[in-house]
Each structure stands twice: as C-alpha cells, then as structure tokens.
Design a protein that fits this description.
Length: 276
C-alpha cells in the first residue's frame, strides 16, 4: 500500500548537522523580496534573522528534489503539496549558527480524497511541523486529524500590506535547497495539474511573516515565538499577495490572499505568536 500508517507514524528520519552564515540569511531575505531600503534584512551590520529562516536551515546545501521515500510512505512527488507549516521558536536564530536536528514522522491523517503526512524536526532553536498533502492517497480508514482553524475577527484588519512577487522569485528561492521541479519546470508543473510553475509555499509563508513583523512589530522578529499557517491556494510568480493581520490573544491572526485573482486564498488559519 502507498501509505502504511503502522510503519510511518513515529518512524525516525535522518538527522542533520546544520550550519549557516550571514550569507545564507541574506540570500533568504532577498529571496523573500527584501529590498535596498531594508538594511536590517539585507546588510550584515545589525542583521536580524526572520524566524522563518528555520524552515530552510535544513535544506541549504541540498541540490536534489526533496525525496518522499519515508518509511511507510511510497508515493510520487507529483502528488504532493505543502498542506501546513507550524513553527515554534525556542530561542531567536543567530546570524551565524550550528545545530543538530532530529526528525520523525509525527502522524498520518486520512482526509478521504487525500492523506496528510506530518513530519517534525527539532533543534535547540526551533521545532517545525510540516504537513504534506498527498492527493489521491486517502481513504485508508485513518484518523482525520485535529482542527487547526484560526478565527479571524469580523472587523477591519489592524494592518493590510500588499506584497508583490516577481516571475523569477522561485528560481532564487530554490537556491535555498528546495529543488522541487514544480517551482521551475513547466512540464513537471503540467504533470502536477498546474498551467505553469507555482511559488514555493514556504516562500509565501516567509513573505507573510515578514509583512506582519514589519507592520506589527516594527521590523523586530526577536519577539516571535511561533507561526503556523495552512496553504489554502497556489500563488503564481508575479502575482501580488494581500496580507491582513488582526491583534489576537498571544499575537496576530493573519490571512493572505492573491490580490490579482479577486483575493483568492493563499494562506489561511494563520497565527503568529509573540512573547510578552
């Protein structure tokens, strides 16, 4: 069977020795769209590290497409989409650092028409949980999983930011280690059911975090303690994101839509938490 929960759940995945420098952090910020007027993101003096850098820390040196040969999971990469990302920050990431990571398959959920495989990676700096949505691999009688809805206040947002993407952005972002051809190869994108390559979900995820940090935290990412979001729709390179944020218990409720397509959803059920 393509997915065997009895084998998959709890299975250990290869750990890694991680290391990064200011060059990696600068490249990450540039790939998210940071510009020349944002010196704390693009210049090593007084450089601040966005917490979402954690999601690329483990892939910085990768040069091959991400494998899906996990224990108990035997599916095609073309069936996989990023479903949700949840990041918990234990301590702010330094500009230059090293860490050992441990990874495992935390759970497998059955959504009927699809399956979700949740992987968890932990380091002293952060823990992140990645939900991989596998189309056509559900209906095996498993648990549907917990609800992750985040309530959005029925009022005008406390901040609204437009974030432009550009056509070449996925080609920059893939240099951070996510070489999935879905984001570069038109033929592979067509095989996966898309008219052209799409933005990396984690690039959108990082752009939205940056927009909220800039609009609500005066550009200071050091107070962020967590950030989770569901990938609710695709974004095509060159489109513009509309990011809205509301004050909520412990942080900010956030949505991101595609302004060019009548505010089609991009990220939903998003919550960015802060200390204090």
């Amino acid at each position: 069977m393509p997915i065997d929960p009895a084998v998959a759940i709890g299975a250990e995945l290869p750990g890694r020795d991680l290391s990064w420098t200011s060059t990696d952090v600068l490249l990450y910020h540039l790939a998210l769209g940071a510009g020349a007027s944002e010196m704390s993101y693009v210049y090593e003096r007084d450089l601040r590290v966005l917490p979402t850098f954690a999601v690329v820390a483990a892939t910085l040196r990768d040069t091959e497409p991400p494998p899906l040969d996990m224990p108990g999971v035997d599916v095609s990469l073309a069936s996989a989409l990023h479903g949700r990302e949840e990041l918990v920050i234990h301590q702010p990431l330094p500009v230059t650092g090293e860490a050992k990571s441990r990874s495992r398959i935390a759970d497998v959920y059955d959504k009927g028409s699809a399956a979700i495989v949740v992987t968890e990676t932990s380091t002293p700096y952060y823990t992140n949980r990645t939900s991989i949505f596998l189309r056509g691999e559900g209906a095996f009688g498993g648990d549907r999983g917990p609800k992750t809805a985040v309530a959005v206040p029925e009022r005008t947002p406390d901040a609204e930011v437009l974030c432009r993407t550009w056509p070449e952005q996925p080609l920059w972002y893939r240099l951070l280690g996510d070489r999935n051809p879905l984001h570069a190869d038109p033929d592979f994108a067509a095989l996966a059911g898309f008219p052209r390559p799409i933005m990396h979900g984690l690039c959108t995820y990082g752009m939205v975090c940056k927009a909220v940090v800039d609009a609500m935290l005066d550009g200071d990412p050091s107070t962020v303690t967590g950030y989770g979001a569901r990938f609710a729709g695709v974004v095509f390179p060159g489109e513009t994101l509309r990011v809205r944020a509301w004050h909520a218990d412990g942080g900010f409720a956030v949505t991101a839509t595609v302004a060019d397509r009548d505010d089609a959803p991009a990220l939903s059920d998003a919550l960015l938490t802060v200390s204090g």
